[in-house]
């Protein structure tokens, strides 16, 4: 901005803008009526907050390439797994009978499964163990696990330059903006160059800044409609 337009913008101004936009986009991203498949996978990656490692729990529609949960937690525990899975369940009009989540070998996902079963919500958990296929489940479901590992790598490619965050709020804002970009604006080769969520109000716009601006406008409009409903 300084070189092109002669406008000096401080780093804090950029952070303030990111936090404000993330606050608008999060309800829209979380409550959008996604059209989902029946293949879901989950995984955790690391994110640095206040100088300490936190965990980012991703859950992902492996077919539609839609990020459904993106929770940042200081703990890699059952409560965080429950919250991440619940993010996915809330996006379904009804829970399919054959609902399955593909995850790693961490026992927190089995404990989360038991928690939901006690509340009359049933789904299957397929655990892909280790790096090689030593059991039938890992052999069958590793391709889905590899899909979310690619999502983690994509996130890390965007996150690496930040060198971590000074607050929980900053980390949540960054991850929210990443999920919004990934779902609504980022073309995917596996989707023949289309974005995961095709919104006609966005797809006709010629530039990424125009699409970002329109997405923010749609989020603002959604909030106003919800408040007046």
Automatic annotation (TrEMBL):
GO molecular function ontology, one term from the record: nucleic acid binding
One of the protein's GO biological processes: DNA integration
PROSITE patterns, per database record: INTEGRASE (PS50994)
Highest taxon listed in the record's lineage: Bacteria
Any single Pfam family the record assigns to this protein: DDE_Tnp_IS240
Residue ranges constituting the Integrase catalytic domain according to the UniProt record: 29-204
Protein name, UniProt field: Integrase catalytic domain-containing protein
């Amino acid at each position: 901005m300084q070189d092109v337009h002669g406008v000096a913008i401080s780093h804090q101004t950029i952070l303030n803008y990111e936090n404000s936009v993330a606050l608008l986009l999060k309800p829209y991203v979380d409550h959008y009526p996604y059209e989902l498949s029946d293949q879901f996978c989950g995984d955790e990656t690391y994110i640095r907050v206040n100088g300490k490692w936190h965990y980012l729990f991703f859950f992902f529609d492996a077919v539609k390439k839609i990020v459904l949960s993106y929770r940042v937690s200081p703990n890699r525990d059952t409560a965080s797994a429950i919250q991440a899975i619940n993010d996915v369940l809330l996006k379904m009009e009804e829970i399919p009978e054959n609902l399955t989540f593909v995850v790693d070998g961490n026992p927190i996902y089995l404990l989360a499964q038991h928690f939901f079963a006690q509340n009359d919500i049933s789904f299957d958990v397929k655990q892909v163990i280790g790096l090689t296929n030593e059991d039938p489940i890992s052999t069958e479901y590793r391709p889905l696990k590899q899909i979310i590992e690619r999502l983690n790598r994509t996130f890390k490619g965007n996150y690496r330059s930040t060198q971590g965050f000074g607050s929980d709020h900053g980390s949540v804002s960054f991850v929210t903006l990443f999920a919004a970009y990934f779902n609504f604006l980022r073309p995917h080769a596996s989707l023949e160059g289309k974005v995961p969520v095709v919104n006609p109000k966005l797809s006709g716009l010629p530039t990424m800044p125009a699409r970002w601006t329109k997405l923010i406008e749609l989020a603002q409009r959604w909030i106003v409609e919800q408040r007046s409903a």
